[in-house]
Input
Amino acid sequence: METFTTYEKENYYDELIDENGNPRPEAKILVDKIETMPEGDLVMRQKAAEALLLRMGITFNVYGRDEGTEKIFPFDIIPRIVPESDWQQIESGLKQRIIALNEFLQDIYNDKKILKDKVIPDDLILSSKTYRKECEGFTPPRGIWCHVTGTDLIRDSDGGFYVLEDNLRCPSGVSYMLENRQVLKRTFPQVFDASRVRPIDDYPVRLLETLEYLAPDQVASPTIGVLTPGIYNSAYFEHSFLSQQMGVELVEGQDLVVSDGFVHMLTTKGLKRVDVLYRRLDDDFLDPEVFRPDSLLGVRGLMEVYKAGRIALANAPGTGIADDKVIYAYVPKIIKYYTGEDPILPNVPTYICQDEKDRAYVLDNLDKLVVKAANESGGYGMLIGPHSTKEEQNIFAEKINASPRNYMAQPTISLSRAPTLVGDKIEGRHVDLRPYVLFGEDIYIQPGGLTRVALTKGSLVVNSSQGGGSKDTWVL
Amino acid sequence: MLSRVANSIYWMCRYIERAENVARFISVNLNLILDMPSEGGKHWEPLIMITGDHEPFEKKWSEYSQESVSHFLTFDRDYPNSILTCLAAARENARSIREIISSEMWEHLNNFYLELSNANSSTFAAKDPHRFYKIIQMRSQLFTGLMEATMSHGEAWNFGRIGKLLERADKTSRILDVKYFMLLPRSDQVNTPIDNIQWTAVLKSASAFEMFRKQNHRITPKDVAGFLIFDRHFPRSIRYCITASNDCLHTITDSAPGSVNSPTEKRLGRLKADLEYADIDEVIDQGMHEYLDHLQTRLNMIDQSIGETFFNLQPLIEATLNEQ
Output
């Protein structure tokens, strides 16, 4: 039966249930509602929601089967609730962090003051795969590098929020945030109303404003496009969804061409100039002339037009250096350096394998730590010590010794849990939180975000490529 | 609009129309054999003739039966013109232009495909084929209705409509070609009401029976062919399809009807004029098959020049790159 009466909170911080097993004040209306629903009703609604997502085509392809098997991204019907007091801290913390990271990007590609002042070892920056020499001496339109950021936050057993990862390249998932909300509105209309959940539906409009702000001054009504790698990309649904919601063109590399010093779209009436691109394509693939020469997804000559100020790109090329997992360890120092303030949202303690003392500690404690590669994403290239075999630990030890620059390690955090529907029972599953930050004329933090949930019992990996799902996130 | 997008919507609509026509042919055939049970088997081969795809069929099946032909035309994923393949292609095109079409259109098409690809549907098709093919037709028409009512009638819509109309004209010409050949061994019978049931079936394949009846009392091969080729108002007649696509084309290019600014306008406009000024007697003198064969070639040329004029701008790009 779908009930909280048999719910086991265990020794974790639970997002909806307090230490005594009672609903937290902000979750009371929701929990009461679920408790009074007829038996089987919640499961039925979960199934109906899944059918709806399938019909809307919010799916990804399961490879290796030509029958066109498609699956929806797993989705859990019980929302995660963030009370206002927590949200205020998140909001101000993220704002502070983004301002500092943006200044950091501007600095390292120009004056390099932070390196000259020896706050960060310069070889750490210059040796990073995501440092783009091509961006040196460049200031992007309006001085903004990271227009769209999705920062991953986690909550430890003490109830405090920590930043786990900055995603300043092409963070995805915002469409799931919006679609999950649509589904939940249909599922719990009364609870919605009574709980006063803050709306998130204006995200596409705000994203559009952010992009319009980047257009060259003399362009009165800019042409904006979302640049996608195409229908085989796992986030294609999101690219298409966002361009539809913003009412802008969805373009692929093959639709664009550089001519007369500008970027143009190929239309049925000839060439049409493009002023701003929200690109959902990694730096590596953007322009075969400058980055990977074998890229078929990008636009030849794009970077030259960009550097001449004739097109704006969001996010700017080169932002990857700021979400390098080793640079991450320095973000508290970066914040202090540029803003003079202490970080409002702390980092998870991090050991940098390039540092001799840290490395020795990491190698001695591989069974307790989480080890991550500096430039991987999506939960790949990662060792979760307590869940690993001796053999896996040895492989990582070799990798770390071979290239210490590329690894960092963190203590295993006991991620908070949230009640999740599993079969016909409610059980606790680990979650994180990815709020979305827009940096245009102002900095705006969407009140909500994507709660990712590790659906496998006991698992700490929330990435969708590794068996993770998502939940709607209610900020009150 | 983007050339790639125009191309996708054009093909999305063509594929859906193609799927509907295949369902329509099978549906009519199912009805027909109820009236002539003893000769059931020989009525299935003509369906493959209409498509012109004997070869791929015979690779897989040794005889023409209701089971083999309907399975081939409906569910065969290796056959590019089966209903399922057409819908899969329509849906892939739709997926790449989701932001252009309405979500009603997308959800309907997505669901249409998902249900047809479900393993249960071939059981359903075998158990109650009449209802099954009716549902396919209704769903395709519902898509057309959604496109009419939920999408702005701008450039994209007009490209989609041209795709649909050209496909329809092609299918009408094919069914007429095959039936005329089969049902009319001697040309002097062209004006006599022979084989009423079969000619009624031809009309029904194009949903044209009732509308034809309003104008004609007798069902003669000549009148049926005349109606399907030249009727001004019937929406599946070849003339209607060509006239309407010509209107769409001039809306897209924003040029006066009758003016000629591209090879496409020239070819389509000329075909339209030919259909306006020709009549069925001329066609019969010339030979029905020869006439329809030539017509299909012209339809293919129009399709090709739409591709060159609007979808494929490669020569233009090369030219601009050389200027630098």
Notes: The radius of gyration of chain B is 20 Å. The first helix of chain B runs from residue 3 to 35. The interface with chain A takes residues 1-4, 6, 88, 92, 95-96, 98-99, 103, 106-107, 110-111, 114, 117, 155, 159, 252, 310-311, 313, 316-317, 320-321, 323-324 of chain B (CB under 8 Å). Confidence is low (pLDDT under 50) at residues 315-324 of chain B.
